[in-house]
Each structure stands twice: as structure tokens, then as C-alpha cells.
Specification:
Layout lengths: L2 H52 L3 H13 L7 E6 L3 H6 L4 H10 L1 E6 L2 E10 L2 E10 L1 H49 L17 H50 L5 H32 L7 E4 H15 L4 E5 L11 E4 L1 H17 L5 E9 L2 E8 L31 H11 L3 E7 L3 E9 L5
Helix pairs in contact: 1-2, 1-5, 6-7, 7-10, 8-9, 9-10
The chain binds adenosine-5'-diphosphate.
The site of adenosine-5'-diphosphate has 21 residues, from α9 and α10.
Length: about 450
């Protein structure tokens, strides 16, 4: 679960818990207050009833008048005044046993049975004990409690919904800088290692993280540059002695005095020197292309024209190759065939892939298809060659890697990594599908010009 969702959930749980506790407090105290209040009203009626019924005289008549004229009658209010020991009377009055026992024990008692409330006391008059009890229903109190329960419940649900959205917005905005940072870091590749993250002012954690990333990028860029410079320098340095060897061998071969055996040896040296020179050139290109494609000259290019150019080059290397071009899915809009890039590099990538298709299929038919898909120009190159063993496919873009079934064919293992580097610096990608002894389909995706 993302931290953003975790924070929302935590927010919701905490607020929900606090609200639940608060609601429980409110309900409890309201319940207490409501009941206490009603019992007090009943008890005042108990006192009044005792005065009126047990102490007859002028005063009791005045009490009776006040009660009849000014005291509100409670719902189902009933009075019961009886001698305390007349047990039969009490049973008839349907008093709860607990209430009666409490009354006898403490001289006063309160009791509640569902919505019915009982209050009573024992009064001694002229040596006789009387029990004065008043009972009534408390519909208002119950209704009030129910209403409060509903209000609290709705309030609780509403607050939770509100807190959920507030929490979501809060966590979204809290993590916005982190998301932006991740997006920016993700967009930094070997081809744009010079890009740096915008450092926000201040000294918070995000600023610290941004600085750390930028320092790391500085170190990475330096390491990359050192490696690239090393390869370019080494290639240059090695090329000079190789040129010297090559020309000396040629001179020696032109001498008439060279015997047959020496000539053979010189020919081997010449071939191997050529091979070494080729490897060095590829290495140099690989190092240059892998780092910063923007150093190269970029222009708008028609991919269909580049394909024809690449086919021409492959025909020079493999004159017997058969390449069929299928442009029937070609988009009508010329713009959808145009990409921004370096002509030489892209042509080199296409030539490498095409010549592999011809080489590893021993000049069987190779098909080249061009189409447009999701803002990309797709070049599909299919051959019917030896394919690549499934466990080895993941390695073929590594420099100098050659599949186990390709050993009988000439090659250095640089063509595909070079092509991948070139396609990457053009913001494109390569997709490969292959089956041993059936063939290989390689797709190049290059963004159309307006997307770059
Ligand atoms: P190489 O000079 O060996 O062809 P590449 O870098 O061009 O080097 O290719 C790397 C490896 O990928 C090859 O050695 C070969 O094993 C495999 N490969 C590339 N293209 C094909 C293809 N069309 N069919 C079969 N194998 C291929």
C-alpha cells in the first residue's frame, strides 16, 4: 500500500476513533441527565402526594390546588399510597420486586422498567408506615435520546466521509513533491545524465532528498564520462599502431621477394588487423552513442527513406541478400513517418539489424514493414533464420555477447547494443520476438516528430 493511502487510512481511523469516543461521552451524559431530571420530577410528585394524602388539613388542600392547577400531568402518571406492610396491595399494584425491596431497605427508591419510571418513599404517620409511590412514562426523554443518537450517527458518518476526502487531499498534496521528484528522476537516463532536479528552497526533507539525488547524478555523470573518454581514447590510441601495421603488411605483400609461406602469414595478419580496426570503430561508436545523443546533429528524417538507405548498405555487404519491403500500411500523413534524429546513427542502427537478419538466415527472405502505432513509427524486420535460444535473448543487447547458436557466423557482438543505444537516444525502444530455427522479428519504435 502506498504511503499516501496509509496516511489517509490513519487519518480516518484516528478521527473515527476520537469521534466515536466523543459521541459515546455525549450520549452517556445526556442519558444520565435525562433520567436524573425525570426521577427528580417524580420525587417532587411523591412528596406532594404524601403531603396531600397523609397530612389532611388546610395546607394539604392548598397543595392539592397547586398540583391540580399548576403541575403538568406526566404521561400515564399514577399514584399509589398504601400501608407499607400490606403486601397483597403491593402485588396488585404491580410494583417490581427490586423496587419494593429497595424501598423497604432504604426508605427511598428509584426504578426503571423500559420506559416506565418508579419513584417512592416510606412515610411514617402516627406510628404507621406508608408507602408513597408515583409512576409515569417518559416518552419525551426517550424520544430526545433517540433523536440525539440519530444526529450523532449522521454526524459521525458525515464527518468520516469529510475526513476521508480531506485526508486524501492532504496526503496527495503532502506527497506531491515526492511524486514530482520520482517522475523527474525516472526521466533521467544515460542519455540525459546532465539533467538536474530543480532544488526547492528551504531545508526540509524534500530539499535534502533533491540535493542528494543531484550529488549522486554528478558522481554518475563523472563516472560515465570517464568511462566514455577512456574507451574513445583507447580506441584512438590503438587505431594508429593498427594503421601502421596494416600499411607495413601491405608494403611487405607488394614485395616480390616474399615467399609463399610468409605471404600466407602476412595475409592472416592483414585480415586480423582489419577485424581489429572494425572492432575499434564499433567500440568508438558505441561509446559515443551511449552517452549523449544530443551531441550529434539532429534533423527531421523520413524513416522510409532511411530504410532504403540502410538496405543499400546491406546489399553492399551481402549482395545475395533478399529484402522485401512492405510499405502498404504506410500512413498517408507524411508527418507520421517523420522522426527527429541523427541520420548516420539511425541508418547505422537499421543497417546493423538488417544485416543481422540477412546474416543469421543465410540470405533467406527478410521482410521490412513500416507502420504507425500510438504516436510511434514502427519498423518491423522479420527473418526466417536461426533465431535466438530463449534463455539468451535477454543478453543479446549486452556488448560482446553472442548467442551460442551464432558462433559459426562472423561477428563481434557490438551491432545490437549499438543499435539499442542509438534507438534509446532517439527516445525509442526495441522489441524482439524469436524462435530457434524459425526466425526473429525485431521491432523498432521511434516517436513521430511532434512528440519529441
Ligand atoms: P554480431 O556481430 O554477433 O551479429 P550483434 O550485436 O549484432 O552482434 O548481435 C548479438 C547477437 O544477437 C548475435 O551474436 C546473435 O547471436 C544474436 N542475433 C542478433 N540478430 C539476430 C537474428 N536476426 N537472428 C538470430 N540471432 C541474432
Amino acid at each position: 500500500m502506498k504511503i499516501q493511502s496509509k496516511i489517509t487510512l490513519l487519518f480516518l481511523t484516528l478521527t473515527g476513533g476520537i469521534l466515536l469516543l466523543l459521541n459515546a461521552f455525549i450520549l452517556y451524559f445526556d442519558y444520565q441527565f435525562n433520567y436524573e431530571d425525570f426521577f427528580k420530577r417524580l420525587e417532587s410528585r411523591v412528596n406532594l402526594a404524601a403531603q396531600i394524602n397523609l397530612y389532611p388539613g388546610e395546607q394539604s388542600r392548598a397543595y392539592l390546588e397547586v398540583r391540580n392547577n399548576y403541575l403538568e400531568r406526566l404521561e400515564s402518571e399514577q399514584e399509589l399510597i398504601t400501608k407499607a406492610d400490606a403486601k397483597g396491595q403491593i402485588d396488585n399494584a404491580d410494583l417490581p420486586r427490586e423496587f419494593y425491596q429497595e424501598l423497604m431497605k432504604s426508605n427511598r427508591a428509584r426504578f426503571q422498567l423500559k420506559n416506565k419510571f418508579f419513584a417512592g418513599k416510606l412515610v411514617t404517620v402516627d406510628g404507621s408506615r406508608y408507602m408513597v409511590v408515583v409512576t409515569a412514562l417518559n416518552p419525551y426523554g426517550m424520544r430526545e435520546l433517540k433523536k440525539l443518537q440519530q444526529i450523532l450517527l449522521f454526524g459521525f458518518a458525515g464527518s468520516l466521509i469529510l475526513v476521508f476526502f480531506v485526508g486524501k487531499a492532504f496526503s496527495y498534496y503532502t506527497f506531491l513533491p515526492v511524486r514530482k521528484l520520482t517522475e523527474k528522476v525516472n526521466s533521467i537516463k544515460s542519455t540525459n545524465l546532465h539533467t538536474r532536479l530543480d532544488e526547492p528552497g528551504g531545508k526540509d526533507e524534500i530539499a535534502e532528498l533533491t540535493q542528494t539525488f543531484n550529488h549522486m547524478l554528478n558522481r554518475l555523470a563523472t563516472a560515465f564520462e570517464t568511462q566514455t573518454n577512456f574507451i574513445s581514447n583507447a580506441s584512438h590510441e590503438l587505431r594508429t599502431p593498427l594503421t601502421v601495421i596494416s600499411s607495413e603488411v601491405e608494403l611487405a605483400l607488394n614485395r616480390a621477394t616474399v615467399d609463399e609461406e610468409s605471404r600466407k602469414a602476412l595475409n592472416v595478419i592483414a585480415a586480423q588487423t582489419d577485424k581489429l580496426t572494425q572492432i575499434l570503430s564499433s567500440l568508438l561508436l558505441l561509446a559515443q552513442s551511449g552517452y549523449d545523443g544530443k551531441k550529434q546533429q539532429w534533423q527531421q528524417l523520413r524513416i522510409d527513406e532511411l530504410i532504403w538507405q540502410a538496405i543499400g548498405q546491406v546489399k553492399n555487404i551481402y549482395p545475395d541478400s533478399q529484402i522485401e519491403v512492405d510499405f502498404k500500411d504506410l500512413p498517408a500523413d507524411e508527418q507520421q513517418l517523420t522522426s527527429l534524429g541523427n541520420e548516420n546513427l539511425l541508418c547505422l542502427a537499421l543497417t546493423n539489424i538488417l544485416s543481422n537478419a540477412c546474416k543469421y538466415s543465410q540470405n533467406k527472405l527478410v521482410q521490412v514493414k513500416l507502420s504507425y502505432q500510438d504516436q510511434s513509427i514502427v519498423t518491423t524486420i522479420s527473418d526466417q533464420g536461426i533465431g535466438i535460444p530463449p534463455t539468451e535473448v535477454q543478453h543479446i543487447f549486452e556488448p560482446f555477447y553472442r548467442a551460442s547458436n551464432a558462433q559459426a557466423y562472423q561477428g563481434q557482438g557490438i551491432g545490437l547494443p549499438l543499435a539499442l543505444n542509438i534507438i534509446r537516444i532517439h527516445n525509442g525502444s526495441i522489441n524482439i520476438q524469436t524462435a530457434v530455427n524459425q526466425g526473429t522479428v525485431l521491432q523498432l519504435f521511434l516517436p513521430v516528430v511532434k512528440d519529441i
